[in-house]
């Protein structure tokens, strides 16, 4: 008890202590009471609020070509990014431990981090971006409160990763593991338009079609939203007509290697 009290007091005073906790969060959090988790969450929230302001240069919506990476040379910005990365790691450790409660404050932190996933354009923020996505994935799979709020940017990130030219079967399997999250989106909402386009690209992506999980994902897509089925059929027919060396859908509706 005394040890945890000292730890919490230190974290409340300094984000550096949060970084130290993040290095071994799963083990360090064992035995925490609900009150201690709440106190920890309050401290994390405060550090995150401050870090989001300080990390501003790395969170710009649009970075000029010649300024990419500039934030990496700013010590205060780098410190803020490290604090946010640590916050994501600790929040993930709480979310994945079924013996620990998730206070509303921590759920709000997860939501705030989720909302900046695609604002992290600067190269020095790549570790933070990956950490946030990992947090959101774990939060959803652990069925923690507020998980639906962590879907839009996370699923978009996973789709973009699976569609990248350097994607591997692991990226497709990761997307398949999160397929349930697709069901929380309103496909009649115009704001989901960009995500629907990513899903259509998945339907004709050779890597997706070659992977067993990818083919199961496509079957899942046909049950998402009835009007979307017509879009899927059109995308597949267009791919059949223009099928190249990579392989794709054949004339009979099955996948063929290039």
Structure keywords:
258 residues; mainly alpha; two-stranded antiparallel sheet; 13 helices; 60% helix
Topology summary:
Layout: H1 2-13, H2 15-22, H3 25-28, H4 34-54, H5 75-95, H6 104-114, H7 126-141, H8 152-163, H9 169-177, H10 193-202, H11 206-210, H12 212-221, H13 226-241, E1 247-249, E2 255-257
Antiparallel strand pairs: 1-2
Helix pairs in contact: 1-2, 1-4, 2-5, 4-5, 4-6, 5-6, 5-7, 8-9, 8-10, 9-12
Q: Could you list the spans in which at least 5 consecutive residues all have pLDDT below 50?
A: 249-253
Q: What's the number of helices? A: 13
Proportion of beta-strand residues:
under 5%
Mean pLDDT score: 88
Helix content: 55-70%
Succession of helices and strands:
HHHHHHHHHHHHHEE
Termini separation: 63 Å
Number of separate strands: 2
Broad structural category: mainly alpha
Taken from the alpha-carbon principal axes, the silhouette is elongated
Oligomer: single chain
Biggest pleated sheet: 2 strands, antiparallel
User: Radius of gyration over alpha carbons?
Assistant: 21 Å
Structure, briefly:
The chain is mostly helical and 258 residues long. Helix content is 60%, strand content 2%.
Characterise this structure.
This protein has 258 residues and is mainly alpha-helical. 60% of the residues lie in helices and 2% in strands. The chain has helices at 2-13, 15-22, 25-28, 34-54, 75-95, 104-114, 126-141, 152-163, 169-177, 193-202, 206-210, 212-221, 226-241, and strands spanning 247-249, 255-257. A two-stranded antiparallel sheet has the order 1-2. α5 (75-95) packs parallel to α7 (126-141) and α9 crosses α12 (212-221). The protein is elongated. It starts with a helix and ends with a strand.
């Amino acid at each position: 008890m005394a040890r945890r009290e000292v730890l919490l007091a230190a974290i409340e005073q300094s984000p550096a202590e949060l970084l130290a906790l993040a290095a071994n969060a799963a083990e360090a959090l064992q035995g925490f009471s609900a009150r201690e988790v709440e106190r920890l969450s309050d401290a994390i929230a405060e550090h995150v609020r401050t870090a989001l302001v300080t990390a501003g240069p790395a969170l710009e919506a649009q970075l000029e070509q010649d300024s990419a990476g500039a934030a990496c040379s700013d010590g205060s910005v780098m410190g803020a990014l490290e604090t946010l990365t640590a916050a994501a790691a600790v929040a993930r450790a709480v979310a994945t431990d079924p013996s620990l409660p998730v206070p509303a404050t921590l759920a709000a932190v997860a939501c705030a981090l989720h909302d900046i996933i695609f604002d992290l354009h600067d190269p020095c923020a790549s570790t933070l971006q990956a950490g946030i996505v990992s947090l959101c994935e774990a939060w959803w799979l652990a069925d923690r409160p507020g998980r639906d709020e962590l879907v839009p940017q996370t699923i978009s990130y996973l789709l973009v990763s699976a569609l990248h030219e350097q994607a591997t079967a692991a990226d497709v399997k990761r997307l398949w593991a999160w397929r349930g999250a697709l069901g929380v989106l309103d496909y009649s909402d115009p704001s989901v338009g960009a995500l629907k386009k990513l899903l259509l690209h998945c339907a004709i992506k050779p890597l997706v079609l070659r992977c067993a999980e990818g083919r199961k994902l496509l079957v899942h897509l046909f049950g998402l939203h009835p009007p979307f089925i017509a879009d899927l059929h059109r995308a597949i027919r267009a791919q059949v007509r223009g099928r190249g060396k990579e392989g794709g859908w054949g004339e009979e509706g099955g996948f063929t290697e290039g």
